[in-house]
Here is the input.
Amino acid sequence: MELNQILAEAINNTKASLWPAFAPELILCVTIFLLLIVRLFNFASRMNVFWIALAGSLVALFYAAPWEHLAPGGELPRYELFTGMLVYDSFTVFIRAILILFAVLFTIFTRLSGIPDKYDSADFYCMVLGAIIGMCLMASANHLLVVFMAVEMASVPSYALVAMQKGRRQSSEAALKYSIYGAGAAGVMLYGISLLSGMLHTAHLPTIAVQLAEMLPAMGGSEKMVLALAGLMIAVGLAFKLSAVPFHFWCPDVFEGASAEINAFLSVASKAGALALLVRICLGIGLIPSTPAGPPPAADEAVAMATLNAELGIGTAAFAVSDSLDDANEPSKSIDVAAAPQVLLAKGDTSTAAVSVGGDNLAPVRTFIAYLVAFIAVITSTFGNLAAYGQTNIKRLLAYSTVAHAGYMMLPVPVAMMLAKSHPEIAEKAIASLALYMAFYLFMNLSAFAIVAFLRNMLNSEEIADYAGLVKRTPGIVVCFAIVLFSLVGIPPLAGFIGKFAIFASLAEGYQASGFNWILMLLVFGGLNTVLSLFYYLRVVKVMAIDPEPDRASSTNWSMVSMGGAFIALVTFPLILFFIKWDLLNEWTITAARNLL
Amino acid sequence: MLESPTFALSLLIFFPALSTILIALMPKNQEDAVRWFTLAVTFIVMAGSIFMCLQGGHPLQFDIGESGMQMMVSKSWIPSFDITYLLGLDGISFPLVVLTTIVSFFATIASWSIKKHVKGYCILFLLLLTGMLGCFMALDFFLFYVFWEVMLLPMYFLIGVWGGPRKEYAAIKFFLYTLAGSVLMLIAILMLYFNSDLTKLSPAQLASTGVAQSIAQADEAPEAAAGRLLQEIAAGDHSKHTFNILALSAMGQSTDLFDGEYLFGWSLQRWAFILLFIGFVIKVPSVPVHTWLPDAHVEAPTPISMILAGVLLKLGGYGIIRICYPICPQAGYDLAWIICLIGVVSMVYGALAALAQKDFKRMVAYSSVSHMGYVVLGLGVWTVARGVPADSASMMAALPDWSSYWNMGVKGAMFQMIGHGVSSAGMFFMVGVVYDRVHHRNLEEFGGLYGKMPVYTALAMGIFFAGLGLPGLCGFIGEVLVVLSVWNFSGVLAIISAFVVILTAAYILWAIQRVYLGAEYKGPHEEELTPINFRECCVAIPLLILAIWFGVYPKTVFKYMDETVDAQVQTLADWTPSYVEKKAALAAEKEAAAAAATAATPMKPTTPTASTTTLPFEPQREFGEGRSLSDGEDLFSKTPQNDSVTQLQTASN
Here is the structure.
């Protein structure tokens, strides 16, 4: 094949299959490029690069087009990109839409709160958008190498962002803690990945499931042990990103050290990406997809692309473990075939065979993952809620609240794992409830940290005690903060309740269908935690609304009638508006979770 | 459009909430304007509800001859979760709605004494009103839960911001107790929802419960829509689950959907009943979950105490009668003893605690605990009112039909809720009047108010006597009906509950003696003891008039609830024999199986597993057969057993 021909085909393929699926990421890349160029030629002094970042993320949001792909009937088939590195389905669309919507709102927010000053903004937005790309990749990861790269791509800019406030010792300390902790967790995770792919001779998630299903029955105890160890090690990396107990220690310190803007970024975007990744890995390892990942829109082109990639040597086979390449005997052959799944699946006949071979051999894997995630989820939410009690700094308090909410959002995952085979529709609903919670969580936490940031600008303090009697000076902001905090508790008529309701409903339905008592325990713990969490959120409200104003109160007033106030209203009112009509969003999430199993 | 119930009921609920937008736009210093506006809003709401009381044949007026739901509103809200916007009124909810609007109106007049942050106060007060009205009218479980929780937030702030010295503690305690109860309720709601199955209901039931209306097209008959709904469910286009409280009640009574064993050997019904009952009984409140009430009352400002005692406590009783019993009748039957006991213990404990109080308002608060015990007891006497809990259907049939006693108990409980709503609101207001003047509530430091405030004392005595349950006043009717109905069930409980009347008389008379009588006033601020003013009279006099009116002519209240309570009690009474028979059959089966097992074990000692594995199946099968008999039963048709009962009764007459 001549080079020209290859290039032409590559371009055609890109146009046909890559662009519709990968456009938002590409646009964000271009935006980053522009931001850097602008800085290079010193345009930055003449124009604010904020506009570039905003325009870039808006265009990316337009191309992410959740309204198109998630509308009822507009279902996407699930297909793989880059020879199985990424998977593109409606879940990707949903998470990506959340992330990019967050990027848009976040860009506006940082502009209004003024945290990156004029000279920092180019760097700041570069890193934010870069991390967003990493998180988008996390949401669509289909291969353990992408998992690792995406996690790093999201983490490394975050370390730098935490340290963004130059000259503030606390920030530097936080960044150091964060990066050391992150490096450690990433190392452990990489070790787990290498163990897993070494044992199973592949790093491609669906293939891992197929391999596991084939190899598991023949495995001895020690091999299973190593597998479990690999799983736990990967879980360490994920738990770090999720700030799940016992890998949450960085969270309060980093949140206290970093500015409120970065906290918003870490608690919303980073968490959304990590949860999506959790879903991807759990379902990817524990389940052979019943709807095989079909080829990209044009079937013959995809096959051509796969062969093309194979010829260029950048196919999945290249990532197959080296020892299997060295061995010339029979197993390695089969692995090579399995490692190029796109070719296989495009033919469409072997995949069904693989499913039937898989049978229920994977049930122990799913049970293992389900128990692990359920245990961590319960511990995380309980610990987060209890630890939040003693906090006097609003950012630390919200950090623990973030930890607790990560626990809530993990609750549906074990249900989905346990019921994936027997009741796929319930499992899909469980994932949908997670997605729904995530959507509301975006507004809740973005609004909470935006308020903290604006209050910091006004009071020069982030101590809860300094919020005393705030209701007299800025009633508007107190009302908004109260709405956000009550929404975080999960009290109707606020959107936070819907998320909680959906998650609890999926747990109840899971219990109903399976009869596992531990799922009922999850439900009870979820309810108990809701009551627990009331105390500390309410304490903040109490300080603002009930406590008397301190005598030495500064006279600075802050009016809701300002750009900042408008922004707070913009992200707070959806919490009420969604409650009136959340049917559409609910249907979007159900569509997003469809075809996932 | 104005005559459509959708618009009218929604307006009644949301008008107060919408008017808060206008209040928010009013300037801060115009406190009087804000107050008058709030008063106008509550007056309009009250006028609306009183218009509905009138019997003029207008479509928006409550028809006392109708036992089912009236003015039903059924609109699809969140179809992907089967949540509907379902509202309606019947004889159980309508009197409470009217009570809510009346008490709120008078509480608004009482709110003139609030001087701090008037604007915020009025906004929260009106939001609270929306929550209360919505809660009484909602018939969709999700919607009910939402309104239930909507009341929490304004109440927290109303106690926490405008309350007394320990307001923060009281406010968070109130919030926490109620939230804990409502989380349990949420779990029960989800359990019931996922076990519900609309296909088990007949089209007629689907039509009467409003399930079908939410999908009905314009001018489509409900029955036709129900048929279409069943087809859609069969085709998988529509979920079979529902949050509709009426449909869930029909399922609880006429199907075996909630009968299966759920956890630790208890049926789903029983679990749901217990979870819901705890949630409601916290609100009532009954011993031992009553401790939030005295704190909340003591710290809350006067008008909020009026609302709290006059309306919020009634939501607990309303929840039990509307949700617990109809949806989980079996559990209600089985646990009747415990419920009655909780009621009696609350009555006695509340009265004794009231006797021990030094704080005037705390005493009134404990009297609420005691009085609301009558409500729980009256609702609980149900099945037990059929004499001893019968072991078999034959035994049951041999007994006379006592369902009229249960009927009496429920009506007594309902009347007690209304009567207590009037008298306790009045009592709290009367305490507030004197507190506004002398700023203390210590019972030991009053005395001689008769001389200084004669009009006030006369009014207060009238209202306190109503709370005491003096014949001719509103407290009497409810108490006497409840005590009479209990007599039949357990002489001991009846004697105890009758004895509580003496305790009640003791603490109220003693309080009157210490506060109003005596030669001289013993406390501080004697010079502040000015006669009652016109505004305060505007609250006290109407409440006293209501208390006398309801006591002398209770039919004013009863005529609205009679039909509905009769129908609901009759339905459940008709249902009871079949359940007793089933239970007896099941027990006999179990006994037989156990006997067979013991007989079989010595013969085949080597195979114990065989006998243990067959055992669970035997009763299970019988169980299923017993159930399937009831599947065909219509909710409103009488069962054969009951006919024999009525024959017996007529024969004995």
